């Protein structure tokens, strides 16, 4: 759906994007992850034709993006991090305006606006946009981005400025729309990505450090480590003497690698020495650990 | 065309709901009434001041007021009307850059040249209504109190001023595509108009400058003939078109 090749972008002496390569598959919810200032917004604005690339090519639905004449935008719905609307309009007036400038049929604009305002919970909102909260504006932003049934929806940090309830609402809406479109979703909130994304890419220092299906990446980086939580603190010392490669995580928690000891071996030892544990679990890689790995 | 009409409609709603349309209407009506009113009140004013002036040795006799005085006021007040219009409307692009509202319009596939075209069309339309409303009010009162036929080439003189106003609008459009600051837009417009005025002071150049179009006084008094304004009209229309045409590629490359 979206392909970026060798994208370079600098602001003065600062190189923001360096040889960026990105491929977003159809019908995916693609998490575009990077710390603040990594170049996520620059990438998204370049895709939208709002910024001119220094070098490289971008293709949306097979069509090349041309700065200043961005016909590819008809395939895209865009939700900026802080969407700004005409504050003198109401939500339905704004959607009608968006539909009209997108050359949609009048009847389609009406039915689609009603459908989307209902989806984002603004169907009863008759006030002008100037009185809207941040969350309401973000929901209206999603509605406008979906209005003309785009093939690709680009959301630039849609949840970063919202409270937990607002975040939950936005993520729910994005989860609902993924059946009909492809979503490219930039964020630095990793729990949001884990919740709704099927694919991810980590942007670090202007290049993509890691990219692929979230499940594949997680299994690739699956560790052999376990943690075990011991009931009584005194037992941890005895265990560490017997199994010297055990590492203390915190007070009653120990970590070990399957290459050093099998979990069964440790549990057996504990059982025969009348020790108890409250929890034993295999450590799954989280996006946070992967992210920290990438930016290190 | 449909998308452009939608954008113009949005601009009109904005003018209406932000109160700009009301302010422009009030100014236009006020100036339209002020022109004949000032002419009408002039004898009364002089009568009031007669005693004071007589003490200074100044006396007025056979003082008559005609439609010419009303139209003289019209052309005297036209710069004030244009300045008010420019001050009210000069932020038409800049406000959108600052709020970021154009981003969503452009990313919805609205072609950039349509934004320039829509805003230029709306400004010209507003200026036309604003200016001619004032003209019609002045005309109606002047016809009621006096006789408008005494003014030579009145319509042509009024058209010349209107064209000058359109030139100022195209300067708003051009400088708005160049700069993101309202101060720079206003500075650019007034600098060009000042240059035009200074050039008009040079011998042999006056007849080509847009500034000549503001000299309605010479036309209605028959001091100058219509054909003497042809070069200035051609220059002004050409410059206006040039400003508009230039603003499109500049806006196409503008970072929003």
| Integer average pLDDT of chain B | 92
Strand content of chain B: under 5%
| Major sheet of chain A | 6 strands, mixed
Please estimate the helix content of chain B: over 70%
Question: Would you kindly provide a written description of the structure presented here, covering whatever features stand out?
Answer:
- The complex is a heterodimer of chains A (296) and B (256).
- Helix content of chain A is 35%, strand content 28%.
- Chain A has ten helices and 14 strands.
- Chain A has a six-stranded mixed sheet with strand order 6-7-8-3-9-10, with helices on both faces. A four-stranded antiparallel sheet of chain A has the order 2-1-4-5, with helices on one face. Chain A has a four-stranded antiparallel sheet with strand order 12-13-11-14.
- In chain A, helix 2 packs across helix 3.
- The two termini of chain A are 30 Å apart.
- The mean pLDDT of chain A is 87.
- Chain B is an all-alpha fold and 256 residues long.
- In chain B, helix 1 crosses helix 6, helix 3 runs parallel beside helix 7 and helix 7 packs parallel to helix 10.
- The longest helix of chain B has 36 residues.
- The radius of gyration of chain B is 21 Å and the shape is elongated.
- The mean pLDDT of chain B is 92.
- At the A-B interface, helix 2 of A face helix 1 and helix 5 of B.
């Amino acid at each position: 759906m979206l392909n970026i090749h060798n994208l370079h972008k600098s602001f003065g002496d600062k190189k923001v994007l360096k040889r960026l390569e990105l491929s977003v598959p159809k019908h995916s919810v693609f998490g575009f992850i990077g710390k603040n200032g990594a170049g996520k917004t620059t990438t998204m604005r370049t895709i939208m034709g709002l910024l001119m690339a220094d070098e490289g090519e971008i293709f949306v639905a097979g069509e090349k993006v041309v700065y200043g004449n961005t016909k590819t935008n008809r395939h895209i719905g865009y939700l900026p991090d802080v969407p700004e609307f005409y504050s003198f309009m109401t939500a339905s007036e704004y959607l009608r305006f968006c539909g009209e400038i997108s050359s949609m049929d009048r009847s389609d604009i009406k039915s689609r606006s009603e459908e989307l305002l209902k989806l984002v919970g603004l169907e009863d909102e008759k006030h002008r946009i100037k009185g809207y909260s941040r969350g309401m504006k973000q929901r209206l932003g999603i509605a406008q981005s979906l209005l003309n049934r785009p093939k690709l929806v680009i959301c630039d940090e849609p949840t970063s400025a919202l409270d937990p309830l607002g975040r939950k609402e936005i993520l729910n809406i994005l989860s609902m729309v993924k059946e009909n479109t492809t979503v490219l979703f930039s964020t630095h909130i990793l729990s949001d990505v884990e919740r709704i994304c099927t694919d991810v890419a980590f942007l670090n220092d202007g290049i993509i450090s890691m990219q692929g299906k979230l499940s594949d990446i997680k299994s690739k980086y699956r560790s052999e480590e376990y943690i075990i939580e011991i009931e009584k603190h005194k037992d941890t010392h005895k265990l560490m003497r017997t199994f010297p490669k055990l590492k203390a995580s915190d007070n009653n928690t120990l970590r070990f690698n399957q290459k050093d000891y099998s979990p069964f071996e440790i549990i057996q030892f504990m059982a025969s020495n009348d020790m108890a544990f409250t929890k034993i679990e295999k450590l799954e890689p989280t996006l946070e650990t992967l992210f920290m790995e990438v930016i290190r | 065309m449909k998308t452009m009409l939608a954008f113009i409609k949005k601009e009109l709603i904005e003018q209406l709901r932000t109160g700009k349309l009301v302010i422009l209407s009030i100014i236009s009506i006020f100036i339209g009434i002020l022109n004949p009113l000032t002419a009408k009140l002039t004898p009364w004013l002089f009568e009031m001041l007669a005693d004071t002036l007589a003490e200074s040795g100044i006396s007025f006799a056979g003082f008559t007021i005609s439609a010419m005085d009303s139209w003289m006021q019209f052309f005297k007040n036209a710069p004030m009307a244009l300045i008010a219009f420019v001050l009210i409307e000069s932020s038409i692009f800049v406000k959108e850059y600052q709020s970021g509202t154009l981003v969503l319009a452009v990313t919805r596939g609205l072609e950039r040249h349509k934004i320039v075209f829509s805003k230029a069309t709306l400004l010209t339309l507003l200026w036309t209504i604003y200016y001619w409303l004032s003209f019609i009010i002045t005309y109606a009162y002047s016809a009621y109190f006096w006789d408008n036929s005494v003014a030579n080439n009145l319509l042509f003189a009024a058209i010349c001023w209107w064209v000058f106003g359109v030139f100022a609008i195209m300067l708003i459009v051009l400088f708005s595509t160049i700069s993101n600051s309202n101060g720079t837009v206003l500075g650019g417009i007034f600098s060009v108009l000042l240059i035009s005025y200074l050039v008009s002071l040079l011998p042999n150049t006056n007849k080509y400058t847009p500034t000549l179009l503001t000299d309605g006084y010479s036309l209605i008094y028959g001091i100058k003939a219509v054909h003497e304004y042809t070069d200035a009209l051609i220059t002004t229309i050409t410059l206006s078109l040039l400003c508009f045409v230039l603003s499109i590629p500049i806006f196409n490359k503008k970072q929003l």
